[in-house]
Every structure is written in structure tokens, then in C-alpha cells.
Design brief:
This protein is α/β, with parallel strands linked by helices and 306 residues long. 43% of the residues lie in helices and 22% in strands.
Length: 306
């Protein structure tokens, strides 16, 4: 077994075919197939199901460790090249869209200013997807909704945020802009919401059930930024985290506070196992600094750096 075999197996797993892995690795398909076959012969196991081109159970185990091995190889080089504030290497960051909207521009500015040789690779996705990518060593750290129920992940709470109703100015809900809304009244209106299983939707349903009312969504949309875009465009009212609502844009909509809903918590997630590379450590420190200076300026966001 060698690192090249593991690299090729991981590429096949990621790209779904020997031919695509060969293109990615700048080699030929027969070379990819040969390396995977030799690794399977050595282990005495089938790692790739040739009919579906997906990993077998054993293949999943091998690739999970292969990703950690690859990350450690990269970390050795990054650690040796980095000294003081002269940081070299790559940091792969995951972020939920609502937080990324205001935090990513400030992170990029701070990183370029303090660590100009640092390469950032950023991924926007939902919290469950980011957690799975973190565990699989596809990203190094992630900003996610809390809580995270995964024993392989450690989290640090960063902030809480209000849930707001965003309504077109001509909608009946706009009358509550100055007074705020109760959950029971909000539930009587059809809103743009995420699908069942998303945190804002679930929190709203629990609160509505407690008040003896049932919600009836106007539409279920999988994507906080899409919901925010439609709501702030005046299409229909929606329930959104405060950080998902643009503060620099104005439009034909109003922000309405809602009583009886819990605040949404967000935090920084990292893997419990393995050593962080020097670039990851420095970027994590930079992220916390940016959060301390900029987080308090976001309406409806309350820092909880515990």
C-alpha cells in the first residue's frame, strides 16, 4: 500500500469513474484501474463496486483514512513553510449561507491583509452537509448551526441570532412592524419556509404547536439565501435568521420581530481527531478576531464566544 494508491482510490470515489479520476490526476484510465486493483488484491477486499462505481463498506473505511493521511501530508509541508505571520498553505472553510453573507467578505479582507500567502477554499452548504464534509476531511473547519450531534466533531458557540419575519410592505403582516408579532398570529399566515428538518422550520413548528396552531407554508424552499432573496424582493413573507437579512439593501419589505421563538445558535466546528496545521490554527484565530470586531455590528446577532 502506498500514498499514490490511496490518492487514486480517493479520486475515483470523489469523481465516480476511473476515466474522470484519470483526467483529474493527469494519467490514463488503465493506470488508475491497475492501482485500485493492486490495492484491492493486497487487502483481499473489493473497495469499488464496479456496477455502480461507488465505494463498498470496506472502501468507505479505507477512503476515510486516506483523506486523513492526505491531510497530514499536506499539513507537514504547510507547517514547515509557515513561520510567524508568514503563513503558507491551504485552509478549506465551510460556512452556512446566512452567516457567510456578512462574514465572508470581512474574513477575506482580514486574511489578505494579514496572511497574503494563505490560500482559502470556501464552501457554502447547509449545516448537516458541512458536518459530513468535516468528518470526511473535505474541509478543515466550518461555521454551522448548533447543536451538532456528532461525536467526531467539537464545536465552539460563536453567536445567537433572532428569527425575524420579513414581509412585503403591502402584506397584512406589515402592520406589526412597530409592535412585533406573536407566534400564533404569524402561524395564521402562509410563509416561505425551509423543508421539514431544517432548524428554523422545526423551531417554528414546535412553537406553533405549543400555541395550539398549525403552520401551512406557502412554499418549501431548500436554501436560506433563496428564501431571503424572495422575501426581500417582496414576493411573500418568510421567517429568517437575522443574519440572512441584508442590511445594506432596502426594498419593499419590513422586518418584524417575533415573540416566542428561540434564537438560533451558530458556532465553529472542528474535528476532534488529528492535529490542525499551522495555517488552520492561524485562520481559526483570525476568524475569532473578525467575529469579535464585526459580529456585534450585525442587527439581531448576539456574540456568545464561550
Amino acid at each position: 500500500m502506498d500514498s499514490r494508491q490511496l490518492e487514486i482510490l480517493t479520486a475515483v470515489a470523489d469523481l465516480g469513474s476511473f476515466s474522470q479520476a484519470a483526467k483529474h490526476l493527469h494519467t490514463v484510465q488503465s493506470n488508475v484501474s491497475s492501482h485500485v486493483g493492486k490495492l484491492e488484491d493486497e487487502l483481499g477486499l473489493v473497495l469499488i463496486d464496479r456496477a455502480t462505481m461507488t465505494l463498498t463498506y470496506e472502501g468507505e473505511k479505507v477512503v476515510a483514512r486516506a483523506r486523513r493521511i492526505a491531510a497530514e501530508f499536506a499539513a507537514i509541508s504547510d507547517d514547515l513553510l509557515s513561520s510567524g505571520d508568514d503563513i503558507h498553505g491551504t485552509v478549506r472553510v465551510g460556512v452556512i449561507g446566512s452567516t457567510g453573507r456578512w462574514l465572508v467578505p470581512r474574513l477575506l479582507d482580514a486574511s489578505i491583509s494579514k496572511h497574503p500567502n494563505l490560500r482559502l477554499m470556501m464552501t457554502e452548504a447547509s449545516s448537516p452537509i458541512l458536518v459530513s464534509q468535516l468528518v470526511a476531511n473535505r474541509i478543515d473547519l466550518a461555521l454551522v448551526n448548533l447543536p451538532v450531534d456528532d461525536p467526531l466533531v467539537r464545536t465552539r458557540r460563536l453567536f445567537d441570532e433572532d428569527l425575524l419575519c420579513i414581509a412585503p410592505s403591502g402584506h397584512p403582516l406589515a402592520a406589526y412592524e412597530s409592535t412585533g408579532l406573536q407566534v400564533a398570529e404569524l402561524a395564521r399566515h402562509r410563509l416561505l419556509l425551509g423543508p421539514p428538518g431544517t432548524q428554523v422550520r422545526d423551531d417554528f413548528e414546535v412553537a406553533a404547536e405549543r400555541e395550539g396552531v398549525t403552520i401551512s407554508p406557502l412554499a418549501e424552499l431548500d436554501g436560506m439565501r433563496l428564501i431571503a432573496l424572495l422575501a426581500t424582493s417582496g414576493y411573500a413573507p418568510a421567517l429568517l435568521p437575522a443574519s440572512a437579512v441584508p442590511t445594506i439593501l432596502t426594498g419593499d419589505y419590513v422586518r418584524i420581530s417575533v415573540e416566542g421563538l428561540p434564537r438560533r445558535a451558530a458556532g465553529l466546528a472542528v474535528r476532534r481527531r488529528g492535529m490542525e496545521s499551522t495555517p488552520v490554527k492561524r485562520f481559526r484565530e483570525l476568524l475569532l478576531d473578525v467575529m469579535r470586531t464585526e459580529g456585534a455590528n450585525q442587527p439581531g446577532v448576539y456574540l456568545r464566544l464561550t
